[in-house]
């Protein structure tokens, strides 16, 4: 009986905490237009954090468009989708979809990067391209 009560309470607190996390997505409070969870954002480079939380206005939380171009707005999304494609708890089709989306967004970003050879995150973009291509060549299992 005590174990059953603990399970019910655990489920209740899990649901209650996930409901409060919904506040994170409230546009009026300055949150993301791309809907990434906080535990996903923390695994991104700091220059992507502002892309997912509009309250972060400091330049260190954004990719500088004058340095890297307007096409780089897809780069953070490519990283997020790649990270999601590596989640072993997601189904194979879902992970493959995220990997394909990541490839598309990365290709878009790299296409625009050609006009900005001095981009300060160029090495990271090219490294991500290699990681994504390698994952695609191995395939989702």
What does this molecule look like?
This protein is mostly helical and 141 residues long. It has seven helices and no strands. It has helices at residues 2-21, 38-41, 46-52, 65-68, 75-85, 92-113, 122-138. The termini are far apart. Residues 8-33 have low confidence and may be disordered.
Features:
141 residues; mainly alpha; 60% helix; 0% strand
What order do the helices and strands come in, and which of them pair?
Elements: H1 2-21, H2 38-41, H3 46-52, H4 65-68, H5 75-85, H6 92-113, H7 122-138
Helix content: 55-70%
% residues in beta strands: under 5%
Task: Give the C-alpha Rg.
Answer: 18 Å
Beginning-to-end CA distance, first to last residue = 41 Å
Number-wise, the strands total: 0
Order of helices and strands: HHHHHHH
Q: Summarize the main sheet.
A: none
Helical segment count: 7
What's the pLDDT, averaged over the residues? 80
**Unreliable segments of 5+ consecutive residues:** 8-33
The shape is flat
């Amino acid at each position: 009986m005590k174990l059953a009560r603990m399970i019910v309470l655990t489920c209740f607190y899990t649901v209650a905490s996930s409901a409060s996390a919904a506040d994170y997505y409230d546009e009026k409070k300055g949150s993301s237009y791309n809907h990434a969870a906080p535990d996903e954002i923390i695994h991104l480079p700091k220059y992507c954090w502002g892309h997912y939380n509009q309250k972060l206005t400091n330049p260190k939380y954004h990719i500088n468009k004058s340095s890297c171009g307007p096409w780089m707005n897809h780069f953070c999304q490519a990283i997020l989708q790649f990270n999601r494609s590596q989640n072993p708890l997601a189904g194979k089709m879902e992970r493959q979809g995220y990997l394909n989306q990541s490839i598309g967004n990365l290709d878009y970003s790299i296409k625009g990067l050609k006009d900005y050879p001095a981009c300060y995150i160029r090495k990271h973009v090219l490294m991500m391209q290699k990681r994504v291509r390698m994952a695609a060549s191995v395939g989702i299992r």
